[in-house]
Amino acid sequence: MSFPALDRYQTGLTGLMRRSRLRVLSQTRGVDFTSNDYLGLASAPQIAAAIATAIDHGIPQGAAGSRLLRRNHCVHEALEAEAARFFGAETALYFSNGFAANVALYSTLPQKDDLIVYDALIHASVHDGILGSRARAVAVPHNNLEAVEQAIRFWREGGGKGAPWIAVESLYSMDGDRAPLAELLALAIRHDGFLVVDEAHATGVLGRKDGGSLSP
Question: Which residue range or ranges hold the Aminotransferase class I/classII large domain (predicted)?
Fold first, then answer.
């Protein structure tokens, strides 16, 4: 039986197959040059031992609900306190992954009168967060300070009254280059705005004590 609402998807899949562009899952083989696990944390025996010890001591294996609704555990707070200390920050908030963190941040903190200026090579998670934001957003060429400045000035001249948010990565995973953070910070301060730096690919690799590019 034909179901028109699904037929369009089948047509799309057939087209991908015909052009040899249909992606399929396969078992991993050989040496892995695609992993994001630079530090080998996924297979570290120390982490496996720590997890086993935590379970033996009665730490819950799952949240069983949101932290806001009586599921905030002392272990959560201890982890965030340790992260704040490590990164030299006042406080820290953990998410299940970096993708979720970016979506939450950009969909909630920038307000409707604000402007998000994001680097053209920013991670897809930032794009998803921006889709849920009420703020105006504009992309600028990669690592182009002048373009960031111009975007903010054009917005101000057009009546922009909120705060600008500059979205960058300290270390870009695709090209391996770094953002001019000092200059971007000065620009953000000059325009009374915010600089949001994604350190996903710098943490554990760059900075003092491997704390990322922003580590004090």
Answer: 30-210
Note the pLDDT tens digit of each residue in 107-133: 999 999 999 999 999 999 999 999 999
Residues paired with residue 165 on neighbouring β-strands, in sequence order: 116, 194
* pLDDT of res. 199: 96
- How far apart, in whole angstroms, are the C-alpha atoms of residue 196 and residue 168? 6
Measured distance between the N- and C-terminal CA atoms of the chain, rounded to whole angstroms = 64
Fold of 98-210: Aspartate Aminotransferase; domain 2 (3.40.640)
What is d(CA 77, CA 173) in angstroms, rounded to the nearest whole number?
30
Each domain of the chain, given as residue ranges in start order, spans 66-95, 98-210
Burial class (CB in 10 A: 0-12, 13-18, 19+), 106: buried
| Whether 140 contacts 120, CB under 8 Å | yes
Token pair belonging to 43: 């297979």
Q: Which amino acid is at 94?
A: Y
Q: What's this model's pTM, rounded to 2 decimal places?
A: 0.88
CA atoms of 87 and 214, how far apart (whole Å): 8
**Among positive and negative, which fits the CA dihedral 115, 151, 121, 165?**
negative
Single-letter code of the amino acid located at 164: P
| CB neighbour list of residue 65: distance below 8 Å, 6 or more residues apart | 71
β-bridge pairing 164-169 and 115-119: parallel
